[in-house]
Every structure is written in structure tokens, then in C-alpha cells.
Design goal:
388 residues; alpha/beta; six-stranded mixed beta sheet; 12 helices; 35% helix
Length: 388
Amino acid sequence: MLLGQRVTVIGGGIAGLAAALAAALRGAEVTLLEQAPGITEVGAGIQVSPNGWAVLKALGLAEDIAAKAPRSRAVRLRDFRRGAEVFSFPLTREDRPWHFVHRADLVDTLADAARAAGVRLRLGTRVETVAIDGDETSLTLADGTVETHGLTLAADGLSSPARTALNARSRPYFTGQVAWRATLPDDGSLPAEAHVFMGPGRHLVRYPLRQGRLVNIVAVEERDDWAAEGWHHTDDPANLARAFADFCPEVRDLLARVGTAHLWGLFRHPVAPVWTGGRLALLGDAAHPTLPFLAQGANMALEDAWVLVRCLAEDTDTAAALAAYAALRRPRCARIVQAAEDNATAYHLRPGPLRFAAHSALRLAARTAPHLVTARFEWVHGHDVTKS
């Protein structure tokens, strides 16, 4: 039903590029508007879990990404002070591929595929405001130009003007946590595993990228002083090292090598109450910003893109298709966003009876029934939107 239909996508990140590619592969004439002068991404890693990988496979990109990001083998939870393992999640099921991917590699692959599928990329095009007028979507650009579009898919991120066209402005609140991101060269000796060092009010995640030539670091600290939102704010690496100075030597040695660190405040945004209106739909962070404690931001974006385009392709009534998309996606995404917030509490337990009991229970489960722990998130990772 998308054959020959004109579709406009706002935003050239993972959600926007995936939606543009999916629509083009179903025959739509797609134009993507991106505010930046080029399709680029920051140097950071993401975890593509089986639910996101299913979409990449359906889009025909799995082999290309796998060549740049070999399969991951495990996620290991470790104590901060001694580095002792508390629990490990094996990622070895053949039918559940899990990959640590450099964000730039994923974005480049999506962009190349979108161009090859005929998507027209309009770079340097910033959308300032969005308005709905019946079946038309009015976009006011940064230069004052007003354009009229039809079916519009808005993947325009945290500050989405499309979201405010459908919803009252929300007030995100500071969670009392900040996060650092850093990547640094490595010698390829790290195993293809994510290691989570859990400490009081802090945790650090480390995993390799690009066949181990890089190591990705995400470090989170609870504190009263807030930092600005967004990934592009730099911070003195000494501040990062100081915040984790009581962690085990393995972590301290790693942080001593960091040359550039980015810092941002973690804010809790509500999931948008309304996702669609007229011929406009939200997806990705524009609809459901999430905290980085379940590694599902990119995966939700990929799922959104597939489900949205599938609904549009299967129903000649655009309004009904958009309503079906929102009904399918909003409950799942809201549950994931809440689970991510809950995970922060589990990682940051302070010394005392609760931490001792929680870690003891995990160690016991690791010896007697590890499947019971891993099954806790089966509803996240085992979900395949390409088959439902």
C-alpha cells in the first residue's frame, strides 16, 4: 500500500534512517530531512540485542553489520571493589544474536542502504515547528520556509517539534545521575563481553567495539549537581577517574587512559501520551526517551521503524494504520522505559544488608538456576516484531 506514496521522514538518526529505508523498500518515495550538514554520529557504542537484530536482518543489513561488529558472548555483573563476578548472562544462543556495535557504523550502514533504495536525503534542513492541518503536515524550517507535506514520520529526537505538535510540552526531571561516555583504542585482547562494575551510587559498563580495536565506556554516577542533557558536552577525564577512584585496579587503569570524555545529565522524560495525529507519527526518542540502563534505545527505534512502516503498508486507511502502530508500540515502550529506570537502582545498591542479599541471591542463582534470572528479560530480547 506504500507503492508510489510520498513519505517524509524528519531526523537522520537510527530511527529515521531505519523508517526511511523500510518505507523505500516497500515502494514509497521517501524524503528524509536532517538538520546536520552530513549523516554523522558520535563515537560511541550501542548494544543491538536480538529484538533489534531481527529488524536489521529483515532490512537486509545483518551481514554488513556483523562484519563490523562480531557477536557478543556474555554480559557479566561484577563487584566494584574487587572486580569479582556476581552473575553472568550468556549470549550464546545461536537464534539470539547480540552485537556490540559502533553507533557510527550502524548509522553509516543504514544511510548507505537508504540511498541505495532511493531515499532522498535533504541535509542541513532543520525543522523548527510542525503543525497538522487535516491530511497535511506543515513544516517551518530554520530559514523561515514553510513546506507542506503529507505522511510524515518524525524521528527528531528529544527536542522534537513534532512531539509538541501532538502533545503539551512535558517537563523532564533530573534523575540525580550523570553519565560519561568515552572510547579509547585497545589491543584486541578484551573478550567479546560487556562487563558491568556495580558500586554504591555508581556503575561502569565496558565492552569492545570494532573487533576489539576500541573499548567503549559508559559510567554513571548519582549526584546532586546536574549536568546539561545531550551527548556532546565534554568533561575533564580527571573528573571521571576521580568519581571511580575506589573501584578495582582494572577500572582505574582503564580510566587512566581516557583522553576525551563526554558528560551528560540523565533526565527522565515521560513517554508521549499521543503518538499520532492527522498523517503525522512519532517514533524513537521523540516518542519515548529512555535512560541507558537496559541498552534498548536503539533497539526500540529499530522496532518502531519496522512496525510503523508495516502498519502503513498493510492498511489503506492511514489514520487506522497509525492508530494500530501506536497501540502496538506504546505499551511495550513504556514498559521498557520503566524497566530501564528500575535497573539503575539494582546497579547502585550501597553497602549493607540489601546489597549483600541481592548479590548473594544472584550468586546463588548463577550456580543453581541461571535461566531464572536471564528469563526475567525474555519479554524484551525475545520479542521479534518482524514475525508478529
